[in-house]
Request: fold
Amino acid sequence: MTLLISRSEALKTIPPRKAAVALERTLKGCEQCGPNGVKLDYACDRCRVRNEALKRYAASNIPIRYWDLEMSDFHGDEVLLDRYKGIVSDLHATYDDGACICFAGHHGVGKTMTCTNILKRAVEKGYQCLYVTLSDVVSNAVSGPLDQKFKARKELIMVDFLVIDEFDPRYMPTDASSDLFGRQMEDIFRKRSENKLPLFMCTNSPNVVDSFQGPIKDSIKSLMNYATIVTVVGKDFRAGERLG
Reply:
């Protein structure tokens, strides 16, 4: 039996109105439902399945821009594409193994697109997933209400598949609190590793450890001991194909 974890409001960043528009767009674009102005309760099977998937994407905090972007549209680094295919070809094995991977590369090479697609496939298999940025985690840990700090930490530790995007020092707190935050993150990573729960990170820093300074650097170095670093190369898709 699957035990559902409590989801943290503090880690949610999907605008409800935007999510509702995306659900409506599914019906409007359907040849069967669109012309007749069908509501969701009376939608065709295809639209119901699609909208159930979109609701799960929203619950997993996957950014809306990636809901319709699939890896079949990706024309970047073949190493990244092959890694994606290996991960999603047997998600149950990925979950059992507790994969921990950090994708490192410049802006727009497909790191976020790859990780959000991993989450989409996992959501569709019934796993609980969460997408966050390091900024989201820092903000909640440093200044969030006490009850939300506890719930967010619990979700970060317990969720089946976790993606932490923008894993770099741009959003680090002051030195006084960065050491505490680093130790909190190290605890989350360690517990996920001990329980073999998958974790995927994206960073724009070629050397993620050396990009951090001060007390937190040692904690980040310790965190990276749990991770496989995958270097991603290629052009920036954001300016053209917008797949970055």
